[in-house]
Amino acid sequence: MKLHRFATLAILILAALACSGTQSSAALLINEVDSDTVNIPMGATDPLEFIEIYDTSGISVPLDGYVMVLFNGNGNRAYRVDDLDGFSTSATGYFVAGAVPGAQLAIPVNTIQNGVDAVALYLGNAADFTIGTTTGTLANTTNLVDAIVYKTGADVDGVGLDGLLGITGGVVDEFGRDGLAATGAIDSIGRFPNGSGAARNSTTWTFMVPSPGASNGVPEPSSMLLAAAAALAMCAVRRRQ
Ligand SMILES: [Ca+2]
Ligand SMILES: [Ca+2]
Ligand SMILES: [Ca+2]
User: Fold this and answer.
1) What is the mean pLDDT of residues 3-12?
2) For the purposes of burial, counting CB atoms within 10 Å of the CB of 18, is it exposed (0-12), middle (13-18) or buried (19 or more)?
3) Which domain CATH number covers 103?
4) Which ligand is nearest to the CA of 111?
5) Rounded to the nearest 5°, which phi and psi values hold at 165?
6) 53 C-alpha to center of ligand 3: Å?
7) Would residue 18 count as lying in a domain?
8) Which ligand does the CA of 98 lie closest to?
9) 127 CA distance to ligand 3 middle (Å)
10) Where are the alpha helices (DSSP H) in the chain?
């Protein structure tokens, strides 16, 4: 293990210690998104897309009363709605929707749009929303539990989408590691440390090794340092409150 990895681990441990005793009550959060994936087998398009929702209690909780809505940055209106009645998080708190193997809610490949687009979790029912580029429900904060706006490199649509969803911290770039599509296909984006940060706040989101249904990890020491610094900053803010 190289020296900088020791330094990174030390910072992460410090971040964990700094946060101890300041944890808020359990929350249901959008925890990870992978909209642009490697195309294996060849010829497939984004066959490993997924959205991960996590209850920070770390146990199975029912998702009755929740609805997941996907917003198209081209117009900022809903393009897919999934009612979560009847579903639950796993025994360790995770719920996965997507084309990736093991997803509790199967979504066809090449459905989760490559940004700028958004994933949102609302209290409500599918019937509360309409879908369509011009007639779909406009992104809004009524009964909104959590949301994330993401992009894949130099996308230019989705203007104002994070504002419509009341998100602090801005748009998260799935190609953020090096700006290359090939790298972005490999990486997902999610909260790091796992389940960290507030709802509708993207400051703890970074690119990482996809981990659908499991705790979030990070592939690059550089991003681990950034995430650890963000975690320490959030703890400092919490302590001042
Ligand atoms: Ca996609
Ligand atoms: Ca990806
Ligand atoms: Ca995960």
Assistant:
1) 44
2) middle
3) 2.60.40
4) 1
5) -100, 5
6) 8
7) no
8) 1
9) 29
10) 3-19, 161-164, 181-186, 221-240
What secondary structure, in 3-state letters, does 110-129 show? CCCCCCCEEEEEEECCHHHC
Q: Is residue 50 situated within a structural domain?
A: yes
- CA diameter of the chain: 55
User: Which ligand has the nearest atom to the CA of 37?
Assistant: 2
Residues with CB under 5 A from ligand 3 (ion): 32, 52, 211, 216
More confident residue, 5 or 196: 196
Query: Residue 144: is its pLDDT beyond 80?
Result: yes
pLDDT digits (tens, 9 = 90+) for 41-87: 777 899 999 999 999 999 999 999 999 999 999 999 999 999 999 99
Residue 152, both tokens: 């894949």
Domain that holds residue 205: 25-214
User: What pLDDT score does 240 carry?
Assistant: 52
DSSP letters along 194-212, please?
TT-S-TTB-TTEEEE---T
Ligand nearest to the CA of 189: 2
> Scanning the structure block, which residue is given the tokens 């490949």?
109
Q: Is residue 19 part of a domain?
A: no
Closest ligand to 188 CA?
2
Distance 126 CA to ligand 2 centre (A): 27
Q: Which ligand is nearest to the CA of 181?
A: 2
CA atoms within 13 A on the CB side of 106: 3
pTM, two decimals, is 0.83
Question: What is the distance in A from the centroid of ligand 1 to the CA of 36?
Answer: 5
Q: Number of folded domains in the chain?
A: 1
Q: Cα(5) to centroid of ligand 1, in Å?
A: 32
Question: What pLDDT is recorded for position 231?
Answer: 55
158 in any annotated domain: yes
3-class DSSP state of 156: coil
